[in-house]
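--- STAGE predict ---
source: upstream dedup step, 1 unique chain passed
mode: sequence only
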Amino acid sequence: MEEKGWFGLTWRALLIGSACVIFLSIAAPFADLVLVGTWIAGAHLPIGALFVFLVMVVGINPLLKVMKVGLSKSELLLVYCMMLVGAGIPVTGFTEYLIPTIASHQYYGTPANKWITTFSANIPSWLTLSDKEAIRQLYEGLPNGASLNFIQLMKAIPWGVWVKPLFYWTLFALGMYLTMFCVGVILRKQWVENEKLVFPLVQLPLEMVSTEEGKLPGFIPAFFKNKIMWLGFIIPAAIHTINGLHYYFPFIPQINLFFDMTKYFSAKPWNAINPLWIIIHFSVIGFVYLLPVELSFSLFFFYWIFHLQAVIGNMMGFPLPYTQGYTAPIRAFAAYQMTGALLVFTIFGFWSMRGLLKDMWRRAFQGAKDVDDSNEPVSYRTAFLGALIGLLGCSIWAAFAGMNFLFFLVAIILFFLTFIGMTRLVSEGGMLFISIPTRPSSFFYAFAGSAVFGPVNLTMLSLVEYVLMFDIRSSLMPSIMDTFKISDGAKLKRRHLTIGIVVAVLLSLVVSYWAVLTFLYKAGGVNCQQWFTVGLPKYYLSRVDELIYRPQKASGNYIMSMGVGAAVMGFLFFMRRSFLWWPFHPIGYAMGCTWPMLQLWFSIMIGWAVKSIIMKLGGLKIYKKLLPAFLGLVLGEFTTAAVWVIVDMCTGIKGHRIFLF
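--- STAGE serialize ---
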């Protein structure tokens, strides 16, 4: 039978979850920095976390059941939740961006570019490094670092110089994470219970531990006994196995899953469609099968609407610059449209839950007994105060770093207004990863230009943005929302889940500091994945240099684009609420042509087409019967990617990547 009631935290689940978080906090940076391979934690469904969970469910737990000490469903899912929360912090979520960037101006600075002088004057010494030898060794490696054994390496690394900057950056990160968690608590009931969002990314782990109705749990969960699931599993597994063998043995033919179509649109005005990629992601096809067809249709429909705007603008001779301060090739007009849309999207979301917010407030500060928050992750009072403390704490931190307090407070509020909207795209739209089209600085510079804010504000805001707001593909809040949804399926007491989340975050921070510093000092940052050690740091330095010495001017066009985006989003909300036949979902416009959509649009379109055909020809019965096959596509692709990471680690092969995002 299914487990009944709400289950509490067990010590063994907490210990196993902690061990798994520690493992991923080492394995993920190793895969990124040393192997330069598949990013096993660079998404909101981390490959590494899902693979470890798979090994536990079908490998370790059956053996434990034989010994009569098997983990329950709630224990397994608590372990998964801890991995889900902890996996992204060591990589693009924080540490891999932080450590190389705060040392970059000292290493890449020269008398010609004057970066050392500029950045040393605008960044307080307690947030960066000044020990030139420690910085040089970070980028170039310790003397004979590759030949040092573990004990020698630990003794050689200059840990002491990192204590102060990492301590103060940890304070800022914890303030951000506290805000994300508390805002998630405030949104949980509306998204999970009232609106019943799909949360596509949690469906696979839940299915992996589900039992057949009316039957006792077996040694192997029912999901893995489903032949239809294995049919879906084998398709990506076979293709990625062949392509992996091709990487090792080039005489084996490759099955191409990436096609650059940009070259076919080289003539004006079609050259405005740049880039145009066709990439087949089997996991994305699998997740799209879970989405309502109007949502998946809207995702790729509005992707092309933005391209159409670019083509028309090019035809009429309008300038179409790409967004300043970003590495992703997104047109500025599109980025600001999506930003305006995201702001309206988030504000409308809060407006639609105004009744619930009023009840939460009454419970939090008036002690209303008709509102129950006993099984929330924390009390509503704690959630409201925690969000406020997080925002103010980060702003005070910024003020001590030399920034204007109100300037940064407004910046961080703007970030969360757009970030909450993007989080909704994960919870409702099943996006494997997300990317904010603009950052807080984009608002300020569009309205007032960059010169009026001064060098310290420009430098510090850019530094914070590039460390924690630039790449949100594994940021914490979407994972937190997924754990809240999983807690329902696990029947896990949410206050106990909070303990697991806190432990995972703290462990991930501490262990990832150790892991990233160890890998960089052993091999030398310039010999590792250069996006983290060369690409982003230099991009940040160049961008700040440009803002200070060649200021960005205010732009009425950017402001107008934000207004257009806000108006279109308002119209889409009105039509969706007023007419049942309206086929366009607002999420599609908000996602637009961001970096994820540049890579995922084709797979989303395939998933939409397949589901539409199945629903039309077979109806709901066939849809449900084939669902395991599409979850199998996800599991097959992620499992094969993880296996190849293990093979690459054993063979020492570098540069082998399954996923391009």
